[in-house]
Amino acid sequence: MIPEIKKILYATDLSENSRLAFSYAASIANRFGAGVTILYVMEALSSNAAAQITAYIGDEEWAAIKKRNQQEVIETLKTRLEAFCAEAGGELPECPFITEKTLVEVGHPSTVILEHAHKDDFDLVVMGTHGHSALVDVMMGGTARRVLRRCKKPVLTVRLPKE
Question: I want to staple 97 with a disulfide (CB 3.0 to 4.6 A). Which of 29, 44, 118, 126 is the partner?
Answer without folding.
Answer: 29
